[in-house]
UniProtKB/TrEMBL annotation:
Organism expressing this protein natively: Phocaeicola vulgatus str. 3975 RP4
Name of the featured protein: Putative membrane protein
Keywords from the named record: Membrane, Transmembrane, Transmembrane helix
Keyword Membrane attributed: yes
Membrane spanning residue stretches: 12-36
Length: 37
């Protein structure tokens, strides 16, 4: 039960980092494509 308690916040924490990295990469690629359009 304690492991479950700690694994859920970690899951959301890593998912937030994962989404943040992907959105920043997506924005970077969009800006890159826009500059060389």
């Amino acid at each position: 039960m304690v492991e479950m308690y700690f694994s859920i916040p970690l899951f959301f924490y890593f998912r937030a980092i994962y989404i943040k990295i992907y959105t920043s990469l997506f924005i970077f690629c969009c800006n890159f494509a826009f500059c060389f359009k």
